[in-house]
Amino acid sequence: MTASHPGGAAAPEAVRRADPLVWWNPHRVPAADVLDALPVTRADVQSARDLRARAAPLLAALFPELAGAGGRIDSPLVPLPGGLVEALGGTGAERWFIKADHALPVTGSIKARGGIHEVLGQAVRAARAMGFEGEDLDALAGPEWQARFADHAVLVGSTGNLGYSVGLAARALGFQAEVHLSADAKAWKKDRLRAAGVQVVEHAADYTHAVGAARDKAATLPRAHFVDDETSRELFVGYATAADDLARQLDAAGVVVDGAHPLQVIVPCGVGGAPGGLTLGLKQRWGDAVHCVVVEPVQSPAMLLQLVSGLDRRTSVYEAGLTNDTVADGLACAAASMLAAEVLRPLLTAAVTVSDARMLHWVRRAWATARLRLEPSAAAVFEAALALGRDARGRDATTHVLWTTGGAQLPAEAFEALLGSR
Predict the structure, then answer these.
(1) What does pTM read for this prediction?
(2) Hey, what long-range contacts does 201-209 have (CB within 8 A, 24 or more apart)?
(3) Which of 183, 290, 307, 379 has the largest count of CB atoms under 10 Å?
């Protein structure tokens, strides 16, 4: 049953009641039919791969923790421990993995993939405008370019993790950095940004307001770049290149992905840029052999509502009578990115909504069973996998990848508070 909310879209009754839901996307079509018509192309993703390769020495120079990996920002692909597979209802016939972006170098969240990519792109553009003609981008790590970048600013609106990634990368290159944080942002994320020399602007309103404020401020500055989480193709393609990392790791693990051996990937979703980019990259590589699923809080199902409503106008969770109040600060987005929605509507297999209580349950269980240090937003993937397993349509994937998107850099006191939550 559905009901029309004030904006005119048909919201599932379970969504309006803030009840957990598995929503199977009726708009999905064969990937081959739409990939070449999407607003982000294969050529766009290839350009991101090229920049990623050229910038690796620069990143290794900027961030010592990347030196051993040659400047590559990637996370381990970890077999899911047996206790967690059993808890998720695994049959023993499937293979289960965690793509551990909660332990991603530099910032400890998936946002490093897109955020750092966009800041790198802006650094190259700014340097070219000032006469830099070289191809060895590690030269931009030197004091000369740090001094020349000092009167340039990078601004972003965030609930925390994107702001941390953008702010850290901008400051490492010598840019001024200003991060506008929504009311959901955790105090420890604000503290870390300030410690890195980032200007933090706090807002008493939600994520959409913080983004708008950062956009408006950037428009008043002479040499400013605004990182727009709602529309940025640079963020999007930065996330898309993660499909290359996953493909390499699955191949090393002996996992075949094809029509007879499907892959299911579950990713937390806030405004949608990261899961949208990942889905695009995965579909470009494996087509219909990969099934992509997003998971959202029951009070913040912005992407689910946008996909249900269609692409004619942007909708919000408030129109469905929801609060956008969730313990998963990284997912507390009232409205989805329309760019991400345009990509996900024909490609996404399903969206799952989960409660705060169940996210906190999996924070505790993942720690107790496997010593995985996860934020609630990252732990949401476990509840989604469990919910999908209750439905026969969720059992068609022989390999499951749960993309844990943040948490390893949680301060001890913040993580202990989560463990003690009920």
Answers:
(1) 0.93
(2) 206/182, 206/324, 206/332, 206/333, 206/334, 207/157, 207/158, 207/159, 207/182, 207/270, 207/271, 207/332, 207/333, 207/334, 208/316, 208/333, 208/334, 208/335, 209/182
(3) 379
